[in-house]
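Q: Here's a chain of 66 amino acids. Please give me its 3D structure as tokens.
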Amino acid sequence: MKIKFIFMMFIFILMGCEHKSEEYYKAHPEEARKRSLECRHNAIISLDCVNAYKVGFPRDENLTQE
């Protein structure tokens, strides 16, 4: 019984490790924006959220150059 529980937890952890690439979000900008807002609202920091944020809310390079 314990082994079954541990195995199921391991599977759930591995499922949570999936992330979408920056290229994926470039092809799906609406999903990038939606995911980025979801991450922000739930205070999630993950590679998936970072990739979504980069595409969903691109920085204006003119603002950073002086």
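Q: Can you summarize the key feature?
A: Residues 14 and 48 are 14 Å apart (CA to CA).
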